[in-house]
């Protein structure tokens, strides 16, 4: 007698940081997967990461590579969780052995937003008063904005979105630069005062998209995750990540990007800037979306030829000196 025994439906454990933004993103992924696969159970497991614990040190000083992802990655390697949901921009471009970027979901607006104190509600990024105090914790935003607006004062800002908003509203800052996507996802879209145009500042690699990381050997899960992948976002982000991977040397660097897809053609623009905003190199490449990663590498090489390496070497040297 033959009996057909199907294996019991699997329970899949999703790892997430505990921050409000991370949870909103993770529950969204859980819901999408649950809709596509009603017979599978998807459970959320939260973990604190190093980045959630060190809230008082400037991120630019400690370098933020892997700060928000390491504990989740260990969880996957130890099989405590099956996959992790990340803001793709926080996921290092090189993953630990045995883990892969299995899917990239549809991107929100990847741009940065200007958020202002009440008293500047009639101003824009280019019309704030001389000396206006602008809060940002990213070298990329700092370098590009300093280049354009050397007459503003830039000040580091840390903490979660609510903390940062409270500091702004209390008058500690005149304006903040934050990702549009994070504000939207946390229901604070009404605080987006101006979307920073790409002519003023390019966004971070992977900004606005979610990246799902899992064990490379888990073919069954990887095929499920394809259900929530957004191919256009994936191609754009693969090009952006290849560009960054080719240029970075182990720490947070002022690198910005912009990508567009028209038909089968992907256009990638990248910028490398010095922290003081004095030196800037920018260029654009285009090609087939199927060559996304090749385009990223090619653009990195182009910018190197135009002096990007010297800019980056100077930043690495400064970090080594601890300044
Ligand atoms: N580094 C922190 C971080 N990681 C992801 C987002 C926002 C959402 C996103 O960019 O996908 C933010 C906040 C910000 O940069 O304002």
UniProtKB/TrEMBL annotation:
Residues of the Porphobilinogen deaminase N-terminal domain: 12-221
Porphobilinogen deaminase C-terminal domain ranges (all copies): 236-303
Name of this protein: Porphobilinogen deaminase
Record's GO cellular component terms: cytoplasm
Cofactor binding remark: Binds 1 dipyrromethane group covalently.
Residues modified to S-(dipyrrolylmethanemethyl)cysteine: 251
Pathway listed: Porphyrin-containing compound metabolism; protoporphyrin-IX biosynthesis; coproporphyrinogen-III from 5-aminolevulinate: step 2/4; Porphyrin-containing compound metabolism; chlorophyll biosynthesis
